[in-house]
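Let's practice the habit of predicting before peeking. Look at the sequence and jot down your guess about where helices and strands might fall. Then scroll down.
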Amino acid sequence: MASNPKVHLFEEVSKHNKTKDCWLIISGKVYDVTPSMDDHLGGDEVLLSATAEDVTTNFEDVGHSDSARELMAKYYIGEIDASNVPLKCNYVPPRQTESRTSRSPRRRGEAARQGCDESSVFRDEALKEKGSEGYKSKLVILTVAEHHSAIVPWQLVAQKTGAILKFVSLTSDEVSDSAKLREMLSRKTKIVVTHHVSNMLGT
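Done guessing? Here is the structure:
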């Protein structure tokens, strides 16, 4: 990284919120992740949902690998002026005009974006039915093996409603630790989000 990195204003960074021009703020640093949009495991929708705010907590909660963190160095473009960075930002995903299931995937991440859209619909319907008070101070439990498309919608729910996210770790066999899950369950548990099969771990 440069010895005298450029300091970016939040107003400037927030304008870079498109598929072909995407900047993120993580741990006080600014990253131009535009080159990774097509290759990101969660699809470009996940990255676009992380623009125009400090997403350090979300980045850490997802549990990125060491190689992913090392890769971030190549996208680093400077520091953020933290004096006017908002803590939260409500992201509204674009309305779809065509069903993704009616056409063949055209590039990597298509299925993940579809999953993110469907998860967002479920999230919105849940909020509409129950109201945000139904999630306030409630637990949403996920596993660390979940795909970004399953995690991000609930991170947005937590930001909007005050729900608390907790993550179940994996055992040495790389399967969700059921004992840890049982320990987390309580009267405050609102929903448990878990995968049926992981296409990453084969479990």
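How did you do? The chain has seven helices and eight strands.
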